[in-house]
Amino acid sequence: MIDKIVLASGNKGKLREFNQVLADFHIEVLPQSDFGVTDADETGLSFVENAILKARHAAAATGLPALADDSGLEVDALKGSPGIYSARFSGENATDALNNAKLLEMLKDVPEAERSARFQCLLVFMRHANDPTPLICQGSWEGRILTEACGENGFGYDPLFLIPELGKASAQLPPEQKNRLSHRGQAVAQFIAEIGRRYGQR
Fold first, then answer.
1. CB 72 within 8 A of CB 84
2. Which of 53, 126, 139, 149 matches a 20 to 30 Å C-alpha distance to 61?
3. pLDDT tens sequence across 1-40
């Protein structure tokens, strides 16, 4: 039986979200910062590698089961960039605004028909640091890159990410709708279904 999981992140939004969804299973999610754990070196070349590195690092440091996610934006016209470098796309002192500005600049001559992109989220759960079969959940959210920012919600590349079937940018969606449709929402739903199947802690 599991009653505590360490989250390999200090992100308060992620922590709140995971605690909400795992409350039904009587599982408490604690940030790695509670244990004085620093961020893992993300030396992987893919989202899944980095998520595994982060989960293993947190599990090894705390002795608890660990949950980690790695996510980002893939733009087809840029051969999958910014990808695993999404958060630091514009350099060492990257901000959302600088990352978005760089993306718009790189795509300025790309026609609308070639601006396809997707958000990816890889969620990894490890029972312990030596877990040979980590639970891996993946969510993908297809869209297109706009030519200018729209909307005030969300963060990161949300103002530039158009959901064609809705005709809106991710940053124009209310949080509940975004969480239901998004790459992270999909991965979390898979994770909850699997935790329920494994542990059934209702």
1. yes
2. 139
3. 788 999 998 778 788 878 887 888 888 999 999 999 999 9
Which residues in 47-61 are b (16+ Cβ under 10 Å) and which e? bbbbbbbbbbbbbeb
- Classify residue 38 by its DSSP letter: P
Q: Do 5 and 67 contact (CB within 8 A), yes or no?
A: yes
Give me the residues paired with residue 163 across strands: 168
Catalytic machinery residues? 70
Residues 58 and 68 sit within 8 Å (Cβ to Cβ): yes
The three-state secondary structure class of 26 is: coil
pTM of the model: 0.89
Give backbone dihedrals phi and psi of 142, rounded to 5 degrees, phi first: -80, 145
> What is the separation of C-alpha 125 from the centre of its chain, rounded to a whole number of angstroms?
14
b/e burial code for range 166-197 (CB count within 10 A of at least 16 → b):
eeebbbbbeeebbeebbbbbbbbebbbeebee
Task: Output the DSSP codes for 112-164.
Answer: GGG-EEEEEEEEEEESSTT-SS-EEEEEEEEEEE-SS---SSS-TTGGGEEET
